[in-house]
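Dear colleagues,

As part of the handover before I leave the project, I'm documenting each prediction I ran so the next person doesn't have to rerun anything. This entry is a single chain, and its sequence is reproduced below.
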Amino acid sequence: MQWHKGILCPIRNEKSIFIKPLNDLPKGYKKNKDVYMHSDNISKYVLPLKGGDSVEFVLGERDKEKPMARKVKVTQYSQRTSKELLEYIDKYTEDLKSADSKKVLMETMSFTVMWSFFGSPNFAEDGDNSVSYVTELLQLLKLILRVGKAYKALLEETIKTVTQGMLFKSTNEKGLPMMIKSSRYIVGRDIFYFEDTQTNFSTELIRSFCHEIIRQVPSVSRSLLPVVSAINDRVQSQSTQNFLFKILSLTLSGESTMIADESRFLFINFRFNLTLSIYIKA
């Protein structure tokens, strides 16, 4: 079975999708011909296809004059607007709450290309919806953690793929850690507020997200260090101390590698008191 590479042509009708091959088709197939693919080749529960997406496909042999893809897999998503991603997340959330939730999980959790894209979104425009996107994504991941408990291996791979993306790295100017550091924390409302966009997101959402990740998928907790560090640097309050104590408790009781490899970083950067430091080192 030979896989060929191609780019999706602009999609005008979801039932008539065509692939532009990146190389000549094999001998016997009509040259310079786009390859037809049926929409059923891709699960209806994943992020909808769009012109410009990169795919790999296997050719059918029934009619070489009208080449058709027998199998198709997405290898890279092209740019999406934040609106498109938010609309999909909203639909996916509803699917997870439906009677088909098991089928939805089985057809999407192993789709690492999509989760990788969510962890490093390639927005088609620099709009003001990045905060909304992060908020909706964290809420979606929390829902997946709740309903996907029975699929431990798939759940771990999904969360790992997302949290290893640029969205969670301190080096990304548009990532969550930098968003936290560049915002204004409003104590009374417990939110991070962005004056330039008049938007905000809940500090408690980030805290609870980190807690759930470390509790259920401890093997990926190291990816959360930049986020946890940003909260500690930005919010000097009792709520932050409680947040760190809970993370510490979850980490020590699980299989997390956060402290094993990053203890010195944690102790210094989080400014734990001397008593706590001695306790941990013991």
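The chain has two domains: 4-76, 82-281. Residues 130-147 form the longest helix (18 residues).

All the best with the project,
I.
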